[in-house]
Structure formats: structure tokens, C-alpha cells
Amino acid sequence: MADAVLENSEKQNWTTVLYSLTLFGNGIEKYVNDKIDALHGTLNNQLHFITKHCVRSCSIYKPELSNWCNTCLQWKTAILNHHKNRNVITKQKFNWTCMDSAKWPLDPREVQKCFYPDWCFTARKIPNLTDVSVLIGCMINCTEFTKNIDHIRHIRNEVSHNFTVSDEERKRYCQTLLNVLKTPDVILYPEAQDAVKSITVLQQTCLKDIIEERLIKEQTLLELKARLFEQKPLIELTKQYVKEIVSITILVMAICLAVWFATEEYGGKFAFLIILLKYSA
Question: What stretches pass through the bilayer (predicted)?
Fold first, then answer.
């Protein structure tokens, strides 16, 4: 099975690009967060005259903007001034319930949700801020980011819907990711530098050789293998085992308590111990 997968170059290339996108997300996460943090500081300075705090989370519990408090309305307007599609959002019915407007003055990550890509507001659960698609969406929608990264979104969409990638496409896609990571204000971050190193190896070497010759970090190698052979990463397996252990522990405790109460009429605690010894023998 493993040999068959390793001989399938298009499967390898698809996995390589998909994982390169994950590495790209790891590389730009701190950069994106810092830019949003800076924007949050700017907004606080602009709205310094607002002294009252929202106490009712208007965006969640007040669907109609006409019912929002002045603080939330002022923050909404200020945030939208930094949204590249603010005219569209103003005309359309924007789903503000996915964020807590009361936290806007305090939490930059809550402000960041305002720049989510559109699909986030129709998802069954709120996406993770570290998801590469969310990070890309923030960079596309927020005026703090001047880089044109629509081509990154194109790569993400391509590998999400097509499960074959040629050698030429792999190299081209990886180079596109590297070009963004190597821009002066991004490459300053150690996370971006690490991502560049790994993606460069993935671009230049086929996945089979990378795995056999162990050309990248051990943790990265394990995650790649998990994706390639459709195995669960170690951390997911650990979480699964912990859940099973907790469930078994709760079940055992429930049985013990049931036996304890049931044996009260047969001699109390002493009878309980006898029953336990009997079944453990």
C-alpha cells in the first residue's frame, strides 16, 4: 500500500502542495496577527473618545443594527473603513452574529473575524483563525495588507477540488508561496523562514525521496506521512485515546457507585469490598 502511494507522482504532488499551503499558513500567521494587532491599536486611538463599554454584545443579541449601542456602531463603522469590500457589505445583509462586538475594543482577534472570507459565515462552525484559508481571506479583505495574494487563494481552490497535481504545477505553486513568504516584511519572521526552508525542499525534491532520505524536520515528516498515507496524526490519535480512557474511567466509576449504593442494604462498605474482591478474583 505504501509503495503504491509513493509510486503515484500525482498523489505525491497533490499532497506536497496541500501540505505546503499548511506550512505557508504557519509562516504568515504571526505576520497577519501583528498587522491586525497594529490595526486594533489604530482603531482604539481613533475611538479614544468612546468611554462606555457594550454590556449586551449587540452583534450577537441585536440582529438589527438600529438596536445596537453607540459603542458597537462606532466600532463597526471604523472597522469597515479598513475593509476592501465595505461597500458590498454595507449593501448586503452581513452576518454579524459570528463575532462579539462587545470584545472589539479589547480583542484584536475579534476584530480579525470581520475580515473573514465569505464562506466562513455559512460554515456550520466558526473556522480556526490559524486556518490558511482564513488567513488568506483576511489578507485579501483588510486594507492593512497591500500584497495581491489572489493567486494563493487560486492555488488553495485548485488543490481543494482537484486531486492531481503535475510536477510542473507543484514547482509553480510552491514558488508562488515562496514569493510571498520571501517579501521583506514577511521573511523577518522566524516562522516564515522555517516555512521557506521546508517548502523549498518540497518544491525541489519528490516526496518519495524526501521521506526515504528524511530531508526535512521529523515532525514535518510525520505530518506528511500521515497526509500521504491517510493516517491520523499522532496528536489526533492521542486525543482519541485520551477520550476513550476518560470514557472508560467514568463508566467504571459509575458501576462502582451503583454497586456501592446497592450493597448498602447488604452490609454497607464491607459487603461492597467483598463484591469487588469476588469479581476481581
Answer: 245-263
